[in-house]
Please model this.
Amino acid sequence: MAVSVETWADHLTISGKKWALSGDKKLSADKETVFSTHKFATAIADIKDIDRYIDPDGNGYEIKALATRKRQDGTGHMELDLEKVM
Model:
């Protein structure tokens, strides 16, 4: 019987601001009621919804939703909805 093993590798290092959502402000990303426990804002980078975020303390988060906010001058930032998983 074949066993599938999932492994992760570092993709990029970014800085930004992460904050916890209070219990009454947790976000539901879709009708399946996928809740986010944290938000993270960072510069525009090569981040995809299949990536995960590990903070400097070693806590792991799944990306539940992401949005890129661009201004007309080409600058902007990304906002990630995260769920703490480890």
In short: The chain has a mean pLDDT of 84. The chain has one domain: 16-84. Strands lie at 16-20, 27-28, 35-36, 38-42, 52-54, 60-70, 76-84.
